[in-house]
Design a protein that fits this description.
alpha+beta, Antioxidant, Horf6, Chain A, domain 2, 213 residues, 7 helices, 4-stranded antiparallel β-sheet
């Protein structure tokens, strides 16, 4: 089992889910994707997480992102748990939850960390681009729920920087100024970024976010 690194192709798999059988790459199609694991069904933190993801569907759709969850429990367990999620989180689960009783997908994605728990998956997150390459990985301990606002922020940055010669600074949010990448000579900035720029230092040049009117 090898650790997945940024830039690696996201491993493909076929699995049963609460929305039927999927082939992961085919299911993603031309979309971005988030694959995230939770330690087990009928657990309190995971219940709040999956409810939050359901409520954020419009935000993910806006960014052309498909979301799938996974645990090492079976389909019957998932289907029963979904009813609890819908009831307690006042939402309707609207994305597939992958059944992985044989831990096949968990092993592919290195989601089981024996020093934390040798049976249950940790809270792994994989953001996958339209090229099926892994763009981001985050691993949370079982005790800490994920921040899905942060995942939206990261996706905004990934999609922006994939198409423009900028990087995003600390605590950047959509609409904030961006960093001009070092590979661009200062003399070339006006032609590439007509909104202007500020040179803080020769290596630190800021420009308004280029994909906004």
């Amino acid at each position: 089992m090898s650790t997945i690194k940024l830039g690696d192709e996201a491993p493909n798999f076929t699995a049963q889910t609460t929305e039927g059988e999927i082939n992961f790459h085919n299911w993603l199609g031309d979309n971005w994707g988030i694959l995230f694991s939770h330690p087990a069904d009928y657990t309190p933190v995971c219940t709040t997480e999956l409810g939050t993801v359901a409520k954020y569907k419009a935000e993910f759709d806006k960014r052309n992102v498909k979301v799938a969850a996974l645990s090492v429990d079976g389909l019957d367990s998932h289907n029963g748990w979904v009813k609890d999620i819908n009831e307690t989180q006042n939402t309707t689960v609207n994305f597939p939850i992958i059944a992985d009783e044989d831990k096949k997908v968990a092993m592919l994605y290195d989601m089981i960390h024996p020093n934390a728990d040798n049976q249950l998956t940790v809270r792994s997150v994989f953001v996958i681009g339209t090229d099926k390459k892994v763009k981001l990985t985050i691993t949370y301990p079982a005790s800490t729920g994920r921040n899905f606002d942060e995942l939206l922020r990261v996706i905004d940055s990934l999609q922006l920087t994939a198409n423009h010669k900028v990087a995003t600074p600390a605590n950047w949010n959509n609409g904030d100024d961006c960093v001009v990448v070092p590979a661009i000579a200062t003399a070339d900035i006006p032609a590439i970024f007509p909104k202007g720029y500020t040179e803080v230092k020769p290596y630190l040049r800021m420009t308004p976010q280029p994909n906004l009117d």
